[in-house]
């Protein structure tokens, strides 16, 4: 379902945004957001870029730009040293307010509230465009410049849309009232904060396969225009692009080594660590926040997870009974068993879910093919019978929406073959991990005279629901 | 509303710092209803886009939270390893025992937390899938399938790393725990178990397991997209371990 290859480049965060790229066409009737509004949400890191996929590191503008970034960067820097939960609570505040606005019952205002409040909602397809914009000469920082050039993992699709950027940027700048100068700065920053830079190999090995930019959305053409307002609102915060990074154990090892070389967690500075680690795409913000966590974890192991630790169960036991050696251990074992079981079940469940979706996708493909062949047939059909064929082909398209897989289709010449998938056994036993399913899809088509004037709906084809047999 | 209720329960029984980060299932459901009833065909595209945006926000929320926790776990994992190494080297008998006991406790709780994070991931995914299904059903849209494909790739759902850490935890256990005297394969020892079931990670795990089971009971809307029913052999023991919230007497 890749309609626009150029869009496939962006980071997973942007990918998400593209999902709602259509929302660009949305009610961006809300005016350009003035700066106070962005100040409302100082805690927003960079939700748009928040999904670091496999690449792990997300580019964000480095310290080289800090002088150029105005209030937004100050806010962001301030909030970093705080405990991560603080920023999260601000985020959650958003969802709460979002909730409230939804409950207000007025759909339209809810949506516009949402737009205003949520910096993350700058779903736009022009966004990746400007992000893809190759580094302009406005980037003074050589480090970033080079790293960006080296670091573009995603191939040449990146460069497909440089043309869009100027138009879009112009619109942005002209639309903006108060923050023109800021915006252009921030925009250039954001253009630096480009797709995932090249990672050191160890990271890319261990990281999860989210890398493949899976942007397969159909975006309305107008979204580029209409998303401007939203983009403006959020650029203030996210152009300084505190893109969330996904840490891995290997990365962390490198981090620890660097810290140790610098004399321990208390003495090490983020800058020093950053330099030592030599990981492309890693920014000082990432290191800073990670260092903060690291310090907390080392010197206050009991309070690291805040309330959770307070409620450890074993503490209650040990205070009650002194000779608990064995009992404690047994209790811990029990706890462990339960946890293990939950883990197993979760894994099984997750695999099942993956499987289900896989099959759904497969079936969808089959139906699409079928429809397509129906359409093709149609084209070859005689003129007189064109209309009913068309309708039925459309009906075929519509029916794809039906999750129950009952297909109404019409074809005079085609007969579909059975689609059978592998069968197996499903087991729910705690120890068994094997998951399999049995599926069959049968499709039969009635043949019909091409000249018949019957409405398409009279030709019904029932697809047998595919069943999954499970062995408990 | 069955899932909604279960989700609510789960949230209530989850670690306090986590409660804000679950799916806003109820609100999204309301929105779906609003969309299906209110919007004229012309606005359908808009409404859908809006809906999608909200979903994306939720996903962002999950992702941030998840990755934050994951980062913490990575750090903690390393710390535990270092502590264990230190303790192994340490000759001093008394300190050794104490420290070892602490480490055991920490490992088990750490393990539990990670599993709970996986549960968090899973339950949010399930909720999303359900919401999408509802949306498609009510509006006749085709949103579900492509959208869920993207969800599958999101960081919060790609839990391989956490799983790996969990397994490593389980392996480290052997070196830290004395060899088991009894058969550890089943849930036994109700006495200790009941004593254990205070608030905390253990409690949450039990709750999560039970909730999972209840959610997987065959439902009326069971389809080929549903998960098969789930029944734990020891579920009665699990029930005794569970401590339900006190009944409010008005």
Model description:
The complex is a heterodimer of chains A (472) and B (250). In chain A, 50% of the residues lie in helices and 1% in strands. Chain A is built from 19 helices and two strands. Chain A has a two-stranded antiparallel ribbon with strand order 1-2. In chain A, helix 18 runs antiparallel to helix 19. Chain B is mostly helical and 250 residues long. Chain B contains nine helices and no strands. At the A-B interface, helix 1, helix 4, helix 5, helix 13 and helix 15 of A face helix 2, helix 3, helix 4, helix 5 and helix 6 of B.
Please describe the structure with a list of short key phrases separated by commas or semicolons.
heterodimer, A: 472 residues, mainly alpha, two-stranded antiparallel ribbon, 19 helices, 50% helix, disordered C terminus, B: 250 residues, 9 helices, 69% helix, 0% strand, elongated
Present the secondary structure layout.
The complex is a heterodimer of chains A (472) and B (250).
Chain A: H1 12-19, H2 35-40, H3 71-79, H4 84-103, H5 107-117, H6 126-132, H7 142-151, H8 164-175, H9 180-192, H10 201-206, H11 223-226, H12 228-238, H13 249-261, H14 270-277, H15 284-299, H16 307-310, H17 313-320, H18 325-380, H19 386-399, E1 419-420, E2 440-441
Antiparallel strand pairs in A: 1-2
Helix pairs in contact in A: 4-5, 6-8, 8-9, 8-12, 9-12, 13-14, 14-15, 18-19
Chain B: H1 2-12, H2 25-38, H3 44-89, H4 93-139, H5 144-152, H6 160-176, H7 190-196, H8 201-215, H9 235-241
Helix pairs in contact in B: 1-8, 2-3, 2-4, 3-4, 3-6, 4-5, 4-6, 4-8, 8-9
